[in-house]
Amino acid sequence: MVANNDNIKITVVEKRGRRGCDYCHRIGDVYDYANDAGKLCPWMLTVANMYIAKLRDGHKFSRGPEVPEGAVTFCCPDPRVMNIFQIEYTGKTEDKVHK
């Protein structure tokens, strides 16, 4: 089954490192995953795709009060940059039982 990439928004919400991002991602940038995946850092996408798969499956992540339902935040895997991204998934979730 081909994954539906609609209903996935990726936002840069914070930056903790001093170095600039090689892909020029900046706080406030918002990407529509279905249309903008080619504009996103491949390092970040490697991590993001794991979270996206879990969100599609209906997995709930622990989150702070500022993170909406159906969303998760994670850090860029480049330790020199440390951008913090938020993924929001508003599509249908798969009917899977979590054990």
Count helical runs: 2
Computed Rg = 13 Å
Q: How can the largest sheet be summarized?
A: 4 strands, antiparallel
Report strand %: 15-25%
User: Oligomeric status of the shown chains?
Assistant: single chain
Indicate the percent of residues in helices: 10-25%
State the shape: globular
The tally of structural domains comes to 1
Low-confidence stretches: none
Walk across the major sheet and give the strand order: 2-1-4-3
Q: Total number of β-strand segments? A: 4
Terminal CA distance:
23 Å
Order of helices and strands: EEHHEE
- Assign the structural class, choosing from mainly alpha, mainly beta, alpha/beta, alpha+beta, or little secondary structure: alpha+beta
Tell me the layout of helices and strands.
Blueprint (H helix, E strand, L loop, with lengths): L7 E8 L14 E3 H4 L5 H15 L14 E5 L7 E7 L10
Please give a structural write-up.
The chain has 99 residues and is α+β, with helices and mostly antiparallel strands. It has one domain (8-89). It is 19% helix and 23% strand. It is built from two helices and four strands. It has a four-stranded antiparallel β-sheet with strand order 2-1-4-3. A hairpin with a 7-residue loop joins strand 3 (71-75) and strand 4 (83-89).
